[in-house]
Amino acid sequence: MQLTLWTYEGPPHIGAMRIATAMQGLHYVLHAPQGDTYADLLFTMIERRDARPPVTYTTFQARDLGADTAAIFQNAVGEAYARFQPQAMIVGASCTAELIQDDPGGLARALDLPIPVIPLELPAYQKKENWGASETLYRLVRALAGGTPSARDGRRPLCNILGPTALGFRHRDDLVEVTKILAALGIDVNVVAPLGATPADLGRLGAADFNVVLYPEIARAAGLHLQKTFGQPMVEIVPIGVQATIRFVEAVAAAAGVDPAPVLAGAPSRLPWYSRSVDSTYLTDKRVFIFGDATHALSAARVAATELGFKVVGLGTYTRELAREVRAEAALYGIEATITDDYLDVEAAIQAAGPELVLGTQMERHIAKRLGLPCAVISAPIHVQDFPARHSPQMGFEGANVLFDTWVHPLMMGLEEHLLGMFREDAEFHGAAAPSHLPRHGVAAPQPVAPAPSVAAEPILLTWATDAEKELKKIPFFVRGKARANTERFARERALPLITVETLYDAKAHFGR
Amino acid sequence: MNAHAPLPALETGCDIRQERGQRAVFCGLTGIVWLHRKIQDAFFLVVGSRTCAHLIQSAAGVMIFAEPRFATAILDERDLAGLVDANEELDRVVARLIERRPDIRLLFLVGSCPSEVIKLDLSRAAQRLSRSFHPDVRVLSYSGSGIETTFTQGEDACLAALVPEMPRAAETGAPALLVVGALADVVEDQFARLFTDLGLADVAFLPARRAGTLPAVGPNTRFLLAQPFLAETARALEARGAKRLPAPFPLGAEGTTGWLAAAAEAFDVPAERFARVTAPGRARAAVALDLYRERLAGKRVFFFPDSQLELPLARFLSREMGAALIEVGTPYLHRQHHAPELALLPAGTKVVEGQSLDAQMDRCRSEKPDLTVCGLGLANPLEAEGLATKWSIELLFTPIQGYDQAGDLAELFARPLKRRARLEV
């Protein structure tokens, strides 16, 4: 048993729903108790979809338990087929139905429907949402993929795009950007799956020359299967950030046998110039903590370190399947990766790392808010505001522009808040004023509301000597908060209860900047 | 656990039908989201799967980070292997929780579908844990599983679990009034003032705001249900000798007056005093309702089943706002508790108990209602089909009972219509 408040991922059948909802002409019959229909809300509210997900639930109740539930399931499959006339169906069980051990695959097979019915085995007590999505896509591709590539003479290269789903973080807009790049390279898209694809489209997957896997968590298994079955090479570079996009363009061009130069010519992204302009100098070595799914966390770390000049002081993921990659990446920055699905561990790691910017999920947004830290969202799970109306990709050259704006914005806000804080301080003469949008917690001394076991209690009570306090006020406002925090950390580490002018300058010398 | 007792059908003018099939409803776990805010020193620990944790997270939205007092003990493979192990695991999780949250006085172990199906005995676990944490923490259990409870029935199961804990009331002396059902604090305070003005000396509310201050109950207790979904709680109170006062539910001015009148009659409040005490509230409600009547009068309304509040809401919309009722869906219909409501609904009102989702959506589409009251899973899809909707969950989180909320209640239904009229894009 695991004590849980937040979960980064839903159960695996939510992953299956993300695939089914992304597709057209596919219907999912889910053996599940009354109440599991809550999952519809994720799609209709968070993603603001205008139709119900193509999912029929058996919604059995206590009075149905016993021999009845199998019949209920078969009825649901039969009625869903009659009503929705799908090209194919997937059937499976949610966590409770897994316990009552009806066999959705066998029961559906017995109905002998004239369409493919693909059973899903999603172990709800071991696996989670992304695994469920990956497994569902793999099962669909395995069952339905067909077609053969035609001879290349004269025709343009053809590829499949695998990975975008419903409820995916910016999948809609990433797909637009990637499609744009492929078009500019003169490559045609055969099938995009699962987003917008029908089961019949999956039947044409084999006709492409190669596959582009956008989100390895979701589509790597399907891509590997296609590689094995149809000999289609797979491009798996995630084009998030300028350099990754360039490598992506080169890899795709190589796979297609076309010239990448025209696409890479000129200045396809504004990020490099924005990042080099003098206004960005203050971003140098900003301490950043990064957490999310593995794909986005790895990409963000590279962009942060090499394209914005931040210092990566924390990196982690809740994607255990890709823990090794994240650990290796963290080692490059001389830090240890945070691999966990417990947000309290993440909170403790953030506090220990002392970042100036947090890049994370919805949870890290809340943690950062509590700790008074600037934050931007880079990964699911996300709330409704991260399914924006405007075009807002993460991938490609336009995605890099979006990343620059999104990550720098909260830091600019931080400067503005310090400015406001300075004026207030000048008038009212108190240095502990917190930024106006963070009324309860000061920036320098965040208080964890939940007792976080790994954060040791602070035994030393620090006092600022009057002249040291005066000296601190002479430091420019935009670094004053940091100077205060550094000095106090310095004093604490050396068990100096009284902070004098000397302590202030000793600390400055020690930490630099 | 199901709401209605198998009673003979009452003579009502309504056309009551039952329907079975796919149901798009919440499970009882959702009740935790508002119950934990009402009982300020209680903690709700769901024993369930990742799905349960995910549901509460989705339902609680942004609230989940305001240090809420609920969590999920997620069962994993090892727990499913054998029951002994699961009990030990539960003890370990509870000990860790109570260590972290020493402010907790009452801990609810909340059963879910997985814990019910594997027959993990949470009531025995609660007894065992109560003994080990006595006297600091009381541990109780109830089921919020989807197989047994629908949405608001989670509150019913929770309050029913509290009833055996209530102290025994004196059997002689003046009778006391107990108001049953979680109400917003502001509404509870309004009702308390009204009862005081009516001259009722001894009025208590269940649930109490703190676990240690449970009201007493006994043969001298008269109780008023403030919510329509409290079948088990009423039964448990009756088993302890308390007597239910039949009344419509306090939604709208008429419902509130009828509800207060039931208490006034039982406690022999003179008619003149009742009229005087309720007059200001009735007058304010009349003014407030006038603002929305034009918008709602004649509008054809369709209710999907959700909370069991549907009948009183339909009665309010039809009688006080002049709306027309196409179909009133309810997950369960407790015929006795709803008898005063059924009596007030227009003759021939179509009431559907239970649900067969696709069939009901077909009926809704073919009727083209002016306003459809439904859950969030259906609301946007129906809007996209051109139907104005009012999402029903808000009716559980917003103060809607009593005279001074009658206007707010009407506004909740009027707003989507006003918005539809306003938007030019």
Mean pLDDT score of chain A, rounded? 90
H/I helix tally of chain B:
17
Q: Give a quick account of the main beta sheet of chain A: strands, pairing sense, barrel closure.
A: 5 strands, parallel
* Assembly of the depicted chains: heterodimer
Which residues of chain A form runs of ≥5 with pLDDT under 50? 427-431, 433-457
Q: Compute the separation of the termini of chain B in Å.
A: 48 Å
pLDDT averaged residue by residue of chain B: 93
First and last CA, distance of chain A:
47 Å
Beta content of chain A comes to: 5-15%
Sheet of most strands of chain B: 6 strands, parallel
Helix content of chain A: 40-55%
Strand order of the largest sheet of chain B: 1-12-11-10-13-14
Q: What's the number of helices of chain A?
A: 20
- Provide the β-strand percentage band of chain B: 15-25%
Given helix and strand content, the structural type of chain B is alpha/beta
Taking pLDDT < 50 over at least 5 consecutive residues as the criterion, the unreliable ranges of chain B are 1-8
CA radius of gyration of chain B is: 22 Å
